[in-house]
Amino acid sequence: MKAIRNSKGFTLIELLVVVAIIGILAAIAIPQFAVYRQKGFNAQSQSDLRNAATAEEALVAGGANYATCANNAACVTALPGLKTSAKTKMAMTGGATTFTGTSCNTSGDGQNYSWDSSLGGLQTPGAPGTC
Q1: In the chain, at which end, N or C, are there fewer CB atoms within 10 A of the end residue's CB?
Q2: Among 106, 99, 122, residue whose Cα is nearest residue 42
């Protein structure tokens, strides 16, 4: 009998090399994906704080004082048109002429963001803390 020499397909060595390459790429990509995901949640928290600041200014433009709220639900109720992300924690403190606010996202790295209208807006965040 003749041995089949023209068989089509991949050898075991070729398949092992491909699996090894995919494994190496996955080992590099997965930790980076987690970092990118945390940065996305942090950006979401920052965006929610900017939106709350815009809603505070809209409230004052309508003739009211700046609002104070202790959590997301209170902020959504007190500030017209504000919608926040589900995992963002937020608090705003308003006065007659200025307001401050803080936010963080529980899925992020614990970075707290603060807004101070008397200092010009979003403040440089400190080291990541606990959210």
Answers
A1: N
A2: 106
Please give the order of strands across the beta sheet that includes 121-122. 88-94, 99-105, 113-116, 121-122
Where residue 50 falls among pLDDT bands split at 50, 70, 90?
A: very high
CB 90 within 8 A of CB 101: yes
Q: Which of 93, 91, 94, 90 is nearest to 64 (CA)?
A: 94
Question: Could you report how far apart the first and last alpha carbons of the chain are, in Å?
Answer: 74
Instruction: Summarize pLDDT for 59-94 with one digit per residue, the tens.
Output: 999 888 999 999 989 999 999 889 999 899 999 999
DSSP code of 36? Answer: H
